[in-house]
Amino acid sequence: MDTTAFQIVQLLLAEERYITYQHLAKEIDVSTRTINRIIKHVQDYLNEHAIPFSIQTGKGIKIELSEKERQEAKTKLQNENIEFIASEERKLIILCHLFKESDYLKMNYLASKLKLSLGTVDRTLQQVEEWLNSYQLYLERERGKGIKIHGTDMGKIRGMAEIITQNIEMSCIHTNNRPFVTLDTFDKKLTGQTRELLISLVDFSLATEVKDLIESFDDDIKSIFVDESYFNFILVLSFIIDSKQKKDKIINDNVKGGLEGQSEAFQYIKQLIFQTERHFKIKIYQEEQDLLLGLYLSARRQVNTENTLKSTDSYTLNMAVILIGYIEEELGIHFNYQSDLLKRLMIHLRSFINRSHLMMEGSNQYLDLIKKDYFGTFEAVRKSLLKLGNVIPQPVSESQIGFITMHVVATMMEMNNNQSKIKVSVVCMSGMGTSKILIETLKQKFPQLDILGALTIDEVDEITLVNNKVDLLISSVQLETSLIPTILVNPFLPTSDLRRIQELLDTINTRKSISYKSDISLQLNVNTKQIFLSYMDTIYKLINHFHYQADISISSISELIKYVASIVTDNFIKQQRLIKKLKRRERYGSSLVDSKGVILIHARIDDLLYLGVIHVNGLTYQTEEGLINIKSVIIMMAPEEKDDIVMNLFGNISTQLVQDQDLMHVIRNGDENTIITTFGKKMIATI
């Protein structure tokens, strides 16, 4: 029995219902024609092992066994030691071969290595190319020669390091007194052939030498990195050195450059680079230095900006924060404390205090215009300054009130303009070079966008982004989100990507422009009525199948994830995929919603649509502040196929989770009816 037949039998044993040939083709990533051809071999295997089955036109095929018999058949199948290669592993094997070879690879060679048809290899290459594009790499095809990777050396280095890092066993990466890379370093689910291929990409002795050099530079360096980032950093530096040694880029001397005025992180990496250059007698160029610095910055535990300000200028920071709070009360609006209003006020207050000590007073040539056009804001600022009392060293003149009013008015105008804009965050691997290219290209092509900045893939926390009203993520790396629409693009934005972005922006604009009010329901046009009914249909499905459970004993996040998968779907294969997705998301710690014990477990998978709340006992969650006792778990599952209605509903619920304390109280303490009623009202309010 070949690998495709083996996979079909596995799928049939996992399901108690009929499975269509189309579904089998999709799951295994082959054509329906291939399934029709292979199904005869499947029947032969089932007959040979006395496994009853049924085939019906229009329904498909199913195995007719009891649960006990089904488990016995699964065990017997595994014991036959048939080694097959799953779709994701096929992609990995092809990538390894492409990275190993500098010359063209024949398609027939890949087909023979994978024991697959040329058609299946060609479909797998589509996935390979999509993965390569996220590193600015491309497949170059030459008739009669085959295929090879085309792109920059930096892209190839990042790509090789990433396919190795993505497939390691986490338990192996920070263990001392063991070889840097062995077969045991990699995921046990991979075949031995694939693990050997991954090892062959790394010069073992060089990587070990680099690791020793880095740790002699700073034996605490591992504590700076998190998760697998340290392993990845060693690989990237090893590949950089290896490429130079192969090209004879050796130098005999290095002159230490000046580090004055640079950030602490820059100086740290620059010193490590100097030490590496001296040890290996090479020159690491600026582009390579930028990559290493980007890996370092994106892997470190970042210090909160506000805490940094407090430690350096707590006096003016506190004064600015208090002043903004008073102005908010007077005007009845809310400013974003992370916006540049806080920074501008700090700078102005600092200079104002300095001038006050020197008995200097500046004039404000715009004072009359400010008092005329923005008198209400001017008065709010004046009253707020009076509330500061003894914090400010002397009475504040109207000129100074006018200057602060200008800062407030500018922020209010920005807020008003932003309401009509689509807010976008850009995501790339390191948050540096690639994102800068993408941001500048987006500014040129889509000036109407409000681009909030660049994020590394590890910084993508959907709860925070939803709270910041982000409408869209534009990413140069593969990224899975459940609450915010995401589009994968090439950083240089070819025509096809520009068209896809514009189509998505049109959809978002349409959604944002739709507002429903009960007193104008009779004026709704046909299209709007249809959208309204679509929303109500989705809400009905979510409420009708809402899942609630109380007093569930759960002792770990891993156990919780498995439990959630079991209640969301009874399909074993879907459960395993969902567990894998949720565990990967948990590595970034993005689930905690409320410090009083509420977390959100969410994902996009297959055609699932699911909403629920469970109350748990015995579960703790590790944060930087310590352990938190988890009492409530919110579960959201959305289909993989994009659905603007689901995204809008779930996005609004997520916004409410971080803004509405009454909702959080209901989730923590409410019974089933109260929780369902509250969620229903929140979703209807979205419309």
From TrEMBL:
The record, for InterPro entries, names: BglG_antiterminators (IPR050661), HTH_11 (IPR013196), Mga_HTH (IPR007737), PRD (IPR011608), PRD_sf (IPR036634), PTrfase/Anion_transptr (IPR016152), PTS_EIIA_type-2_dom (IPR002178), PTS_EIIB-like_sf (IPR036095)
Entry superkingdom: Bacteria
Where would I find the PTS EIIB type-2 domain in this sequence?
Answer: 422-513
Q: Where is the PRD domain?
A: 201-306, 311-418
Q: Which Pfam families match?
A: HTH_11, Mga, PRD, PTS_EIIA_2
Name all PTS EIIA type-2 domain ranges: 541-682
Keyword Ribosomal protein present in the record's keywords: the answer is no
UniProt protein name? Transcription antiterminator
